[in-house]
Amino acid sequence: MRIEQDLKLGFKDVLFRPKRSTLKSRSQVELTRDFTFKHSGRQWSGVPIIAANMDSVGSFDMAAALAKHHVMTAIHKHYSVDDWAGFVHNHSAEVLKHVMVSTGTSEADFQKTKDIMALSDDLLFICIDIANGYSEHLVEYVEKVRTAFPDKVISAGNVVTGDMVEELILAGADIVKVGIGPGSVCTTRVKTGVGYPQLSAIIECADAAHGLGGQIIGDGGCTCAGDVSKAFGGGADFVMLGGMLAGHEESNGEIVEKDGKTYMKFYGMSSQSAMDKHSGGVANYRAAEGKTVLLPYRGPVENTIQDIMGGVRSTCTYVGAAKLKELTKRTTFIRVQEQENNVYGRE
């Protein structure tokens, strides 16, 4: 047993230090980023925010809505191949280049991924997603998927330390998904005692990935636009959002009426609700590691994504970053013990 004494930080532990800026307006800030991915060699341009691959967030409807803003959606893995065929048939190449095809690591998952990717050459991203990215099985599966799809962009995770980021990139991942336990409906840290404060995880994992020419996704822990900015400031190339994009018309969550008000059900993908729905219940060898909550129904996602993007643009103006790519170079974080004055509550 050993104890690491170094301080690890979450988003609530820091604020940006403002700097002189020549920018006159947030409208001057460019949020689009251009990437060329390490193994696939593919190029992509867009706003590197991703709707999470949760079945009450990452829907086909969400993908169509967010693609208008050049924002990505990781489609949840519970759609059938026929569902995908209908989506591909009815949507443009512009929408398809902003979606990720999510998969687990079973043989059935592998075959399903092959069937989906065969539907269109415009499908570019594969998201290999398991809760514990420290399994050797994931490394072997990434190698297998890279061999089968040499020209596709492969994301794999989740992990929180640089050593595993390097191993996954060397195995064939272009992008590594970072985050264990920070999500709003994740209870992994409570059930297992395992986790890593998200900002420190992003800083350490970005350093490891960029040294090898890879990228990372900061996945989880964002509760407001300022947190999204902090993730980018810490070095995340992409930021994945679940709870911030849940509860919307396009989220396709279950609508619930209660006391005359409308709510939408939102739950973690390792929760009792998710396993009852997709796996016939919680297996007797495991515990549920997610909670189920009711969110006030929020209508179309349009206003929310505009608000998030506007917040990130505003961050950039405060620190003098004309492009999102420059934000991490312009970032100085200051440690704080308070974030905001919420005597009247939070919006």
UniProtKB/TrEMBL annotation:
The keyword rRNA processing does not apply. It holds the Pfam family IMPDH. The active site is at C186 (thioimidate intermediate). It catalyses: IMP + NH4(+) + NADP(+) = GMP + NADPH + 2 H(+). One of its GO terms (molecular function) is GMP reductase activity. Keywords: Metal-binding, NADP, Oxidoreductase, Potassium. SUPFAM superfamilies: Inosine monophosphate dehydrogenase (IMPDH). GO terms for biological process: purine nucleotide metabolic process. Its EC number is 1.7.1.7. Residues 9-338 form the IMP dehydrogenase/GMP reductase domain. NADP(+) binds at residues 108-131, 216-239. GO terms for cellular component: cytosol; GMP reductase complex. InterPro entries: Aldolase_TIM, GMP_reductase, GMPR, IMP_DH/GMP_Rdtase_CS, IMP_DH_GMPRt. K(+) binds at G181, G183. Catalyzes the irreversible NADPH-dependent deamination of GMP to IMP. It functions in the conversion of nucleobase, nucleoside and nucleotide derivatives of G to A nucleotides, and in maintaining the intracellular balance of A and G nucleotides. NCBIfam families: GMP_reduct_1, PRK05096.1. Belongs to the IMPDH/GMPR family. GuaC type 1 subfamily. Homotetramer. PANTHER family: GMP REDUCTASE. This is GMP reductase. It comes from Photobacterium galatheae. The gene is guaC.
